[in-house]
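Researcher: Going back to the complex we discussed earlier. I've cleaned up the inputs and rechecked each line, so this should be the final set. Can you rerun the prediction on the complete assembly and write out the structure?
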Amino acid sequence: MTALIHPDRLFPADPDTRAVARRLYAAIKDLPIVSPHGHTDPRWYAENRPFSDPSSMFVVPDHYIFRMLYSQGIALEDLGIRRKDGAPVESDPRAIWRRFASHYHLFRGTPTRSWLDHAFATLFDLDVRLSSTTADLYYDRIAERLATPAYLPRALFERFNIEVIATTESPLDPLASHEAIRKSGWTGRVVTAYRPDPVVDPDFEGFRDNLVAFGTLTGSDTTTWEGYLDAHMKRRAFFKSYGATSSDHGHPTAATADLARGDAEALYEKVRSGPVSAAEAELFRAQMLTEMARMSLEDGLVMQIHPGSMRNHNPHLFAQFGRDMGADIPTGTEYVRALKPLLDRFGNEPGLTIILFTLDETAYSRELAPLAGHYPALRLGPPWWFFDSVEGMKRFREQAMETAGFYNTVGFNDDTRAFPSIPARHDVARRVDCGMLAGLVTDHRIGEDEAAELAHDLTYRLVKQAYKL
Amino acid sequence: MTALIHPDRLFPADPDTRAVARRLYAAIKDLPIVSPHGHTDPRWYAENRPFSDPSSMFVVPDHYIFRMLYSQGIALEDLGIRRKDGAPVESDPRAIWRRFASHYHLFRGTPTRSWLDHAFATLFDLDVRLSSTTADLYYDRIAERLATPAYLPRALFERFNIEVIATTESPLDPLASHEAIRKSGWTGRVVTAYRPDPVVDPDFEGFRDNLVAFGTLTGSDTTTWEGYLDAHMKRRAFFKSYGATSSDHGHPTAATADLARGDAEALYEKVRSGPVSAAEAELFRAQMLTEMARMSLEDGLVMQIHPGSMRNHNPHLFAQFGRDMGADIPTGTEYVRALKPLLDRFGNEPGLTIILFTLDETAYSRELAPLAGHYPALRLGPPWWFFDSVEGMKRFREQAMETAGFYNTVGFNDDTRAFPSIPARHDVARRVDCGMLAGLVTDHRIGEDEAAELAHDLTYRLVKQAYKL
Amino acid sequence: MTALIHPDRLFPADPDTRAVARRLYAAIKDLPIVSPHGHTDPRWYAENRPFSDPSSMFVVPDHYIFRMLYSQGIALEDLGIRRKDGAPVESDPRAIWRRFASHYHLFRGTPTRSWLDHAFATLFDLDVRLSSTTADLYYDRIAERLATPAYLPRALFERFNIEVIATTESPLDPLASHEAIRKSGWTGRVVTAYRPDPVVDPDFEGFRDNLVAFGTLTGSDTTTWEGYLDAHMKRRAFFKSYGATSSDHGHPTAATADLARGDAEALYEKVRSGPVSAAEAELFRAQMLTEMARMSLEDGLVMQIHPGSMRNHNPHLFAQFGRDMGADIPTGTEYVRALKPLLDRFGNEPGLTIILFTLDETAYSRELAPLAGHYPALRLGPPWWFFDSVEGMKRFREQAMETAGFYNTVGFNDDTRAFPSIPARHDVARRVDCGMLAGLVTDHRIGEDEAAELAHDLTYRLVKQAYKL
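Model: Rerun complete. Updated structure for the full complex:
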């Protein structure tokens, strides 16, 4: 049986190129992890309680995993996913684990497989492949370790060599966990990020109630456009006081707008009091991106735009299990016309940083690289979600590099809810980048000294600079 | 002069990776051919008459070939393609062959070239390249062999090691050839597939007459929506009695609909009695995909959707030569919104299999892999038509594998009208898959034991399972 | 320190494949440059004056360079780009050069870097990398050489081994430089090309004045549709007398139209007298593509269509600096429906050549290769603008080759305003093509003898044939 993870994994096959990749990687592999965008739960770091069991750590919270199992006919109930109606689901973590293990072959060729093998090998010293045969061996080993102090969240945080990690919170979140972390005296650096979708997207569940709560929380009069904007400014300042350096915006499209003040006021009044049409909701989200850019110019928060996911495509699953159940599907996403209103207003500001993400890879070479290779305010985020993968990263570099260069990109985001996958994900990005750079050295597009500098920049320096961390 | 086909053809260049590819390929190259989707003529197997001459076998029926020759200014008449007006065309097969041979360089780098060289070498023991110089040598060799019993269709079928092949027929087809094959006692397994476009697509030539014939054939009252649906159920059962395990749907778009019963009835009345607008025709096709899915849940036929070709783009050619003359051109194809009505109704059925194809490769990573990686009813068909090619297959795997995995795909379809190309096409798919898997072994994403299992699955097991063959 | 350009640059890493690439390249590297499409200034060849300084030669006129520098916050004024309001900008070429040099790392991985290093090494014998440290060494060396006769435009033209170069002129251009070249007795072959956008695009600045000037220049009555078309025919003939073999059309989309005569007349009257809607302007451009195709059938000019750039995306930059300031951004471009009116009329003419370009790479495999692989009148231009790059060329071949073959393509265009980059650009294309062909040899898709013939065809023969040069 081979070990789960090979020292040369993900490096190019050609021996000369592989040798270069090895050298580049050796010099950056131990750099600390800077994780500027993700969705880990700050309570883990605040409460520092042990993860309860292998399935709760690896299977139940990971939509990459249960999505694939579901596509092959396995009921979510059998994986222990809680139903909204409270009907019983599998509650034996070992049964869930065995079910997962016996389908582990489904993940061949997927990034999930790489991340899991990395965690199994490096955290739990497992060196046989997961399968129905080894399911119990795995379960016992992991369960045993999780009960020890070395596997508590803060210990793992330190073991992972995380210099700083950002979580993502709603403006309505009191940031209690962040406050608890601060008070605890623990030195791990956990910052928040401002994700205003619940009070910016009229289609968000409970939007109108959220606006009321937003007013109460900030003491601003959110029944008026001016008060609503003021509430954002106050809340952004509050988030900044808990380390936030960025805001994050998950919109169905990249549409932006720059309405006259009176029109914006009228639109706000409409979305606040309802009913609101799909076009009005879209226009309001569009206007808010421009407002957020304006605020960023004032308070310095870096702006991240994540467009193009059709959320909750599967209504049955949504009804039974709720959001984020693996049924968010990308759609074609246009940027050139969509971003123009915002860019007409703020695109030439060198003091503003807007980081663009996409789930539509056709935009890389056609729209995103030309835009980022021109506008001072734009940078390209790393390959996102389905494209946080070996092939996804290769396509991103091949299609964006020649027009946007490397210096209009911002390093890696792990974007994860799955804590143990963090080192694996960063390691994949480092390996793929080193392999790609090695290719440029081998075909003599750049020198190895430049590649080494780039490897460091992509892993560390550009992330900290772009996110002001 | 080198031989036409090299034992290492299509394998990766890197020596270590090539060595793995060779091993993987050696273990699966002799597996029987399972051909679940194609367009060979069942009369060949029923009548078992010799192919008349080299041009009639290779050139005249192959739109890949005459399309390319036409694009370089060669008249279809000079290739012996029959005109609808009966005007004279080239009737000397040797003259056609020489014309083809003298332009053989046009096919450099195309899949057609690979398929032809494979057939020339393996079936006719030719080992010099086709050119104007060797045209007659080729012609004589092929003509001589075609006159022998070993080159009759059934002998070739057996030589090709075909375990089962599906043809494609209209619901109006009496399946006489399939009946003749059955009665003949020949053991070759030839099954039909249900391709209802002539009675489902209001834009099909003769659609209304077809509906009348459909009623006559089935004894159902196709003047009513209920009778029309009943006719489908009866005819599907008839097709099943001739081995059909699948239906096939060639639509301009992937649109589906799920109309209320009254609306569907009214729409059917409209398309039946005309006139019908483009939007109504589209809506009717869309509704019929959902109806077919419903029937599939009952009778178990696997459903194939082939959207996105604009048929008969060239009106002059269509007027002079009719359908399928190489002027079908792909268009951008959206799936996420288009399939939603059908998926809302049946997407969560693990007992249903819908196989999706595309001529718009941008959908692989953005739409198709995320959909197939979630919905239990969905699987991804192999690269289709223009993308049944070395580079097309590589792109498919690179772009679909990481999100849909391998197990939401269904192996290879040859989709061909060109009988002698069948072994070549399957061989290309096997080689490209082995090369791709070897790459995953060499960069340590999977073990060689897993790659070997996958090579077998992709070549044989997944096809049989997905198509229930 | 390594030399700036390595003899094996851009060749595949695999040693066997690289060896084939070397052999293929050795046989074609010294072929003369045929440059059928570009934007060099004919005054250079007419007046043969020295380039004034390094910055004026390399930085100020090159939108690839200042676009990237601008994206990283460097003001265009600091690069010596002239403002429309005449406000002062940096006037010290050495200061501009130093600014450029200190940001040279931004170009890592971009084609600009390759082109520049090639020019620095081959023209100026520089062998250390450009950086802030070497800025003055570079500046002095280049400035010194530019003052010598060997660096005059005509001497460089000959040194570059240019067999023929096309420039691009408006119909309103008197072609005085071309006349001066002819009269000078210099034997360098510089031809013009007919770029009628200023009198074809109602959105062009000064369009209506241009129509008046067009009438004056040709003696045709451009107040009528007939006279306007007549003016084009006359002016095309005039351009042909200065060597033109092609026309060039830069439109926002690929839309074509084939209006009835009365409708075309009425539309012309509208665009001539205004006001004109966006849809009418689009329809007029669309109609003019079909008119130009009709004229090409008569006078033999090859037609080039360059669609899909949204010009002047950045209104602030446009207001301050004018056109072509790096803010032209590609947009999604549809061809299959757009070209149908023109193709319905002229697509089957083997005597017509229309060369299609794209800034939307998704069209390669989905639309352009299927169209060019069918219609006798269509050919595919090389990767354009942002895709005139190593990875862009690879994608073009991988995505177009299998359906369109090589012989529906037309070799390379340098499309440049940057004179010293011409040999570098052609060299990149030759290397990438040889590397790609070597890959086909190594995986046994074609023989090395065929690859050698193709390398010659792609470099030289197909260009001359397609452009009738």
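Model: Worth noting: DSSP finds 20 helices and nine strands in chain A.
Researcher: Good, that matches what I expected from the previous run.
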